[in-house]
Design brief:
The strands form two sheets. Strands 5-4-1-6-7-8 form a six-stranded parallel β-sheet, with helices on both faces. The protein has a two-stranded antiparallel sheet with strand order 2-3. It has a single domain, classed as Rossmann fold. The protein has seven helices and eight strands. The protein is globular, with a radius of gyration of 16 Å. It is α/β, with parallel strands linked by helices and 191 residues long. The mean pLDDT is 87. Helix 3 packs parallel to helix 7. The structure holds magnesium ion. Magnesium ion binds next to loops.
Amino acid sequence: MQKDKVLRVGFDLDGVLLYNPARILRPFAQFLRPFIFRKKSRKFYFPNTRIEKIVWRLLHKSSMWIAPGMKDILELAKEKKIEAYIITARYDFLKHDFEGWVKKIDGSKLFTGHHYNITNQQPHLYKEHMIEKLDLDIFVEDNWGIVQHLSKQFKTKVKVFWIYNIFDKNINYTYKFPTLKNVAEWLKKNT
Ligand SMILES: [Mg+2]
């Protein structure tokens, strides 16, 4: 990586910039799995009915806290060591909640851009498209299915960082990090 180039880094929202305590409860995560990624069809679930949308909103309400490490990310952006983007595949009907979080996270407007999935594309395809469009060097993601898809698509062109949870700690992957704080430390060392 060249030192003179500002790294363009995209951050997923849920599970990356926002800490979701529900992720560490295994039975709950197990229960959610079919809703999150259908392995066979490699398709994500899209909530269609009103009731499904309400449940979906509630699930996203469980992203409750800004992740520790956020301060360091903002610092890196402020010092122009990175150009930071928020890229979430949240669907259009979560717009309101998304904008609320953007205000909370980036009140001082240090991120270069905030993007969500306004046309309701499949999450992994949406992220692939945005990484390409914004010409990112690094993308930070917590969903292993999406990490696998993106790292396969981009090979060495884009580093896909994975924030894993404790149950996935045995999976072998080069750029795996336990928390956002560890990602920030890597960025500090490498920018
Ligand atoms: Mg996520």
